[in-house]
């Protein structure tokens, strides 16, 4: 019965997305709109004082999981300073919609409401849908599915009362140990990153949502998290032009509305000591705006991060970010101080009057394009149902099915009625993967192996498994974010190597693809699926492959080691 329901949903998704694309195809893009006179923008601009104009540059942090006092303090800042926008973080969707309505009432010019939604609302909010991580999407061969996801994410954002998504991530993750990008990237192939990123943002923009490619000029080959210190990108200008900047250049040519700047030291582009790219006029104005001809919104990464405040404290970073060419200064440590210091810089001619006017009007034009010139409060009725629709859930399953990648399948021929062991490693209770696989292998038994199981337990289970004619193994990462290395004990890793050497064993990896490199011996497995993350949908997808109901079509988006390289997939 469930299967027939699923078959019904797919046409509905196609009808909805093509209809939406057709509707929004008639609408001018934000970039196109920037080149035209706009009466609403001019009228709002001329009614503002210089202080109010400067305030449009500032976007502040908001949460709905920190209590009423915190919410009220943010509201007071909005009321007093009349800022340009708000960036939401953790909380719940209905609480957030309520608070958006409250904050918009306090603003004389409607606020741009934004959030990091690289995998949709679920990146920040409880009780909402999480789409697959971008590395998982990087395995998908049908970019139209990612376009559809972009449209659905745009619907979810707009339904909550938001106008901008701080995504997609268009970094080329060519460092497997990258502590901050990693699975947030579409992979290590710059062409694939560009294609996937463009499909995603076009879906969002065609459905009326502002977007932001990040983190320019490319944060994928760093080993320092800019939340805690300033990463160094020590490469030549020609390397950065040809590799890191490639997806951003393609996104700009495809009409992306916004670009977010990374906090990185890049001596080949600006050799000022300890200067983050966010504060560099040669990088932002010289390269991004002038050389790459980007006309849209330039957004700083969070100005409260140590990668910028460590070397430029007390509001100096905010002024430098403004002078460098950022249109939106995100999450200043002190927005009131920033407004005062930027006003002073404008008075002293640090930025020409014409450039200042153009940048404020750029923000106002974004508000106009997003429909804030005719602002309406968010309707709360049926909100949870609308952002958790059956069509959206079916799309998540479609994306998951399309991502599963078969790296090996040269020895194992699973048969439904043989005596089968279904093993999940790295967990403490039966998994959805096991529950689904059991349905196709009725003569089976479930085994659970904790990630730090003692040697004696591992030995006993290995001996027990010798009784079984075929073994199906799931390798699981239960951590909130799928890191590059599994936190398994050495005994458990040795157990995986032992099982991989047996001819009757099929593996499915529900973890970051890079983790395979830290499991020596897995390359000997007769059957190996990589499923990228431990989501319910990908566990369902793997079960479908193992039972013969789904042909895996994904291709590996990153090079794991010498055995498994970018583009592999049977």
Automatic annotation (TrEMBL):
Domain Glycoside hydrolase family 3 N-terminal: from-to ranges: 52-365
Keyword Ligase: no
Pfam families referenced in this protein's UniProt entry, alphabetically: Glyco_hydro_3
GO biological process: carbohydrate metabolic process; peptidoglycan turnover
GO molecular function: beta-N-acetylhexosaminidase activity
Keyword tRNA processing listed: no
Catalytic activity, reaction form: Hydrolysis of terminal non-reducing N-acetyl-D-hexosamine residues in N-acetyl-beta-D-hexosaminides
E.C. number: 3.2.1.52
Keywords, in A-Z order: Glycosidase, Hydrolase
Family label: Belongs to the glycosyl hydrolase 3 family.
Record protein name field: beta-N-acetylhexosaminidase
Origin organism lineage: Bacteria, Pseudomonadati, Bacteroidota, Sphingobacteriia, Sphingobacteriales
């Amino acid at each position: 019965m469930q299967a027939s329901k699923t078959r019904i949903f797919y046409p509905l998704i196609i009808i909805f997305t093509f209809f939406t694309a057709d509707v929004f195809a008639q609408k001018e893009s934000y970039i196109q709109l920037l080149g035209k006179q706009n009466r609403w923008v001019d009228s709002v601009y001329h009614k503002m004082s210089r202080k109010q104009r400067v305030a449009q540059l500032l976007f502040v942090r908001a949460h709905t999981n920190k209590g009423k006092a915190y919410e009220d303090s943010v509201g007071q800042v909005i009321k007093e300073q009349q800022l340009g926008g708000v960036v939401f973080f953790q909380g719940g969707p209905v609480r957030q919609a309520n608070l958006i309505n409250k904050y918009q009432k306090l603003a004389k010019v409607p606020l741009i409401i934004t959030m990091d939604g690289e995998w949709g609302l679920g990146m920040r909010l409880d009780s909402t849908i999480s789409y697959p991580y971008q590395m998982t999407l990087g395995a998908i061969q049908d970019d139209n599915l990612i376009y559809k996801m972009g449209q659905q994410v745009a619907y979810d954002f707009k339904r909550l009362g938001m106008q901008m998504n701080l995504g997609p991530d268009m970094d080329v993750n060519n460092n497997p140990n990258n502590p901050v990008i990693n699975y947030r990237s579409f992979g290590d192939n710059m062409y694939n990153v560009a294609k996937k990123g463009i499909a995603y943002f076009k879906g969002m923009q065609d459905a009326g949502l502002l977007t932001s490619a990040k983190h320019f000029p490319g944060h994928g080959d760093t080993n320092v998290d800019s939340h805690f210190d300033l990463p160094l990108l020590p490469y030549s200008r020609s390397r950065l032009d040809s590799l890191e900047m490639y997806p951003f250049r393609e996104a700009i040519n495809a009409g992306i509305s916004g670009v977010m700047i990374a906090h990185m030291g890049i001596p080949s582009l600006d050799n000022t000591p300890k200067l983050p790219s966010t504060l560099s006029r040669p990088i932002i104005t010289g390269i991004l705006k002038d050389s790459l001809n980007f006309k849209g919104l330039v957004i700083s990464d969070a100005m409260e991060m140590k990668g910028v405040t460590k070397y430029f404290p007390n509001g100096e970073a905010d002024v430098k970010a403004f002078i460098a060419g950022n249109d939106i200064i995100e999450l200043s440590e002190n927005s009131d101080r920033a407004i005062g210091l930027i006003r002073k810089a404008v008075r002293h001619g640090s930025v020409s009057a014409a450039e200042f006017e153009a940048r404020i009007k750029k923000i106002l034009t974004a508000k106009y394009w997003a429909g804030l010139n005719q602002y309406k409060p968010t309707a709360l009725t049926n909100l949870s149902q609308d952002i958790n629709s059956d069509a959206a859930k079916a799309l998540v399953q479609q994306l998951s099915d399309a991502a599963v990648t078969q790296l090996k399948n040269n020895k194992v021929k699973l048969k439904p009625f043989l005596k089968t062991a279904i093993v999940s490693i790295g967990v403490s209770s039966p998994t959805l993967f096991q529950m689904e696989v059991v349905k196709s292998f009725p003569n089976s038994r479930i085994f659970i192996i904790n990630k730090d199981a003692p040697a004696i337990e591992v030995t006993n289970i290995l001996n027990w498994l010798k009784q079984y004619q075929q073994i199906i193994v799931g390798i699981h990462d239960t951590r909130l974010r799928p890191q590059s290395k599994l936190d398994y004990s050495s005994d458990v890793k040795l157990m995986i190597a032992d099982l991989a050497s047996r001819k009757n064993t099929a593996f499915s990896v529900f973890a970051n693809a890079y983790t395979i490199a830290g499991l020596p011996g897995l390359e000997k497995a007769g059957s190996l699926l990589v499923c990228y993350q431990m989501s319910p949908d990908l566990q369902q997808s793997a079960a479908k492959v193992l039972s013969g109901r789904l042909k895996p079509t994904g291709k590996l988006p990153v090079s794991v080691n010498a055995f498994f390289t970018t583009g592999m997939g049977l």
